[in-house]
């Protein structure tokens, strides 16, 4: 695989842009091809078999872009599909769970860690499983927050409705006296200020997007696959964005949170892959 080939990143919608944002910050030389499955979100309420099928289709699409590595920037797809697709494809594929789990274990002081995520991620128990392997004595409390994804997708990041729903979801975890909270969906860092205010300053928030970008950087360096300095200078297609629906809406949202302006998002029929 050519060093200067792009990195593929995919999510159910705009949430994975938090991962893409960290990759851009940590690895400014790298090219990125991003796919948001906006026609079929949310993923959190879908079955394992459905998520695996979606992930295979998206990976087949990304491979037509000659990507050198893929980041599954979705906790639900990481939980349900990563192990399967890792076996099926001959290129590096990483998810967002391992890095976030390891960071939470380093951050906790009292051994009580909360995880918020979609119904699929929390129901899978993947964060508990990963963290228990690292430290069997840890206590992990999961809480599904299914309305967070549609609230983020609608742009209601700072709204009284979001505040009310977040207060209801998080009250259970506050009663567990956790000191660390994993934002276990890549949409959730966009609600970080709201979640942080409700949980209080004594609770450390863990953003797996940041940790995943660092893991990817280390992986590419180890495999001697990092982009050559200056190779993407002046490349108008350095960052390419694709969705399965609502391209204009995605473009506006992406421009609001990424360090670079998104000039165009292309809609594709993902069912063809």
Q: What's the short story on this structure?
A:
44% of the residues lie in helices and 15% in strands. By secondary structure, the protein is an alpha/beta fold.
Fold and architecture overview:
This protein has two domains: 7-95 and 210-272, Rossmann fold (3-Layer(aba) Sandwich), CATH 3.40.50.1860; 97-208, Rossmann fold (3-Layer(aba) Sandwich), CATH 3.40.50. Helices cover 44% and strands 15% of the residues. The protein contains eleven helices and ten strands. The protein has helices at 17-26, 48-63, 75-88, 97-107, 119-124, 126-134, 148-153, 160-174, 192-199, 208-222, 247-257; strands at 7-11, 32-36, 69-72, 93-94, 112-117, 139-144, 180-183, 204-206, 239-243, 266-267. Helix 1 (17-26) links the parallel strand 1 (7-11) and strand 2 (32-36). Helix 1 (17-26) packs across helix 10 (208-222), helix 4 packs across helix 10 (208-222) and helix 8 (160-174) packs across helix 9 (192-199). It starts with 6 loop residues before the first strand and ends in a 6-residue tail after the last strand. The model has no long low-confidence stretch (mean pLDDT 95).
- Unreliably modeled segments: none
- Percentage of residues in DSSP E strands: 15-25%
How would you sum up the global shape?
globular
CATH class of the largest domain: Alpha Beta
Strand tally, please? 10
**What does the largest sheet look like?**
6 strands, parallel
The secondary structure category is: alpha/beta
Q: How do the SSEs run, as a string of H and E?
A: EHEHEHEHEHHEHHEHEHEHE
- CATH-derived topology of the largest domain: Rossmann fold
User: Order of strands side by side in the largest beta sheet?
Assistant: 4-3-1-2-9-10
């Amino acid at each position: 695989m050519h060093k200067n080939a792009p990195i593929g990143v995919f999510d159910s919608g705009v949430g994975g842009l938090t991962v893409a944002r960290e990759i851009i910050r940590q690895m400014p030389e790298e090219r990125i091809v991003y796919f948001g499955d906006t026609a079929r979100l949310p993923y959190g309420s879908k079955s394992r078999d459905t998520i695996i099928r979606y992930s295979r289709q998206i990976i087949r699409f990304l491979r037509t872009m000659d990507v050198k590595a893929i980041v599954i920037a979705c906790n639900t797809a990481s939980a349900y599909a990563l192990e399967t697709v890792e076996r099926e494809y001959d290129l590096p594929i990483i998810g967002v769970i391992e890095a976030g789990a390891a960071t939470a274990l380093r951050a906790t002081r009292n051994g009580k860690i909360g995880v918020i995520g979609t119904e699929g991620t929390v129901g899978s128990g993947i964060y508990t499983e990963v963290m228990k392997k690292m430290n069997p004595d840890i206590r992990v409390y999961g809480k599904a927050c299914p309305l967070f994804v549609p609230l983020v997708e609608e742009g209601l990041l700072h709204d009284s409705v979001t505040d009310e729903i977040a207060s209801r979801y998080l009250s259970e975890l506050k009663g567990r006296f956790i000191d660390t909270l994993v934002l276990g969906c890549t949409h959730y860092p966009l609600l970080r200020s709201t979640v942080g205010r409700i949980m209080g300053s004594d609770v450390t928030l863990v953003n797996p997007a940041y940790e995943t970008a660092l893991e990817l950087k280390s992986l590419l360096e180890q495999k001697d696959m990092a982009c050559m300095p200056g190779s993407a200078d002046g490349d108008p297609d350095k960052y390419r964005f694709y969705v399965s629906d609502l391209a204009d809406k995605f473009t506006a949202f992406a421009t609001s949170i990424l360090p670079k302006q998104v000039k165009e998002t292309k809609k594709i029929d993902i069912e063809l892959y």
